[in-house]
Specification:
Helix 1 runs parallel beside helix 5. It is globular, with a radius of gyration of 21 Å. It is mostly helical and 253 residues long. Helix content is 70%, strand content 0%.
């Protein structure tokens, strides 16, 4: 019965089994992997797991594009891995191999802001078990698993400056895409028109209004993403201060 509902479909429906099942699998996988890595693995083993995650996600995207090229119908206007999530997935192995803090600062906000939207409103032309379907979920959910692994296993944390570094990096990337879209007459990252599938952009008006709305809300959105880290930092300082005060009271000067 379940598999009868997982046949090929023209467009994946939001809320369907094809939408919910990969998300549920990724959530369970992330919890188990992070718990196991923190409690059972040493630092070298944790690093190996992290590198393997990045390699697997990047390799999946690379093989998918090689597959399209070999099929002979690769289209530079629509198929290049230049949508933000595809671009991040293709090169995420760079971050997982060197764990540069600047990359973490930039990728944290890009991944949580961009990938979460793509997970909630997926834009997949063909459903399970097509290669495109598998590539889509491995890339998007894989990015989320990787960034949460960095947060909880390696204890990497952003600062307030990270919000603005990530925002600036995104502006530079989008400017480069404007140029590429103009040269190819393409629509990478939906800079020239909204996606055909339902998305949050549908609430932001027509082009170019939705681009302006996104620009306005990006910094507040990034700040919301940063808020839990800010609160956790303040609580940690407060608890440390209380512990220190308690310790000092035990000494007589």
């Amino acid at each position: 019965m379940i598999f009868s509902k997982l046949n090929f479909i023209s467009v994946l429906e939001i809320g369907s089994l094809q939408h919910i099942i990969p998300i549920a699998i990724a959530i369970v996988f992330a919890f188990v992997l992070i718990w196991f890595s923190k409690s059972k693995l040493n630092k070298k083993q944790q690093e190996l797991v992290f590198k393997s995650l990045g390699f697997f996600v990047s390799l999946t995207v690379l093989v998918f594009h090689i597959h399209l090229i070999l099929k002979g119908n690769y289209n530079l206007v629509t198929d290049l891995p230049l949508y933000l999530c595809s671009f991040m997935a293709l090169f995420i192995f760079v971050f997982t191999n060197n764990r540069k803090y600047l990359l973490f600062e930039i990728l944290l906000f890009w991944i949580i802001a961009g990938t979460s939207q793509a997970v909630i409103t997926p834009d997949i032309p063909i459903g399970f078990p097509s290669f495109d379907y598998l590539r889509y979920w491995i890339a998007h959910l894989g990015l989320l698993v990787i960034i949460f692994y960095a947060i909880f296993v390696f204890k990497m944390r952003p600062t307030l400056k990270s919000v603005f570094k990530s925002f600036l990096g995104l502006q530079l990337y989008m400017l480069s895409l404007f140029v590429i879209n103009y040269i190819l007459d393409a629509n990478y990252s939906y800079l020239n028109r909204k996606p055909d599938a339902a998305s949050a952009l549908d609430y932001f008006g027509d082009w170019p209004m939705y681009l302006l709305v996104v620009e306005v809300i990006l910094i507040p959105y990034f700040l919301i993403i940063y808020l839990p880290f800010f609160i956790a930092k303040k609580l940690k300082k407060k608890l440390f201060s209380k512990d220190l005060t308690h310790i000092l009271k035990g000494f007589k000067f």
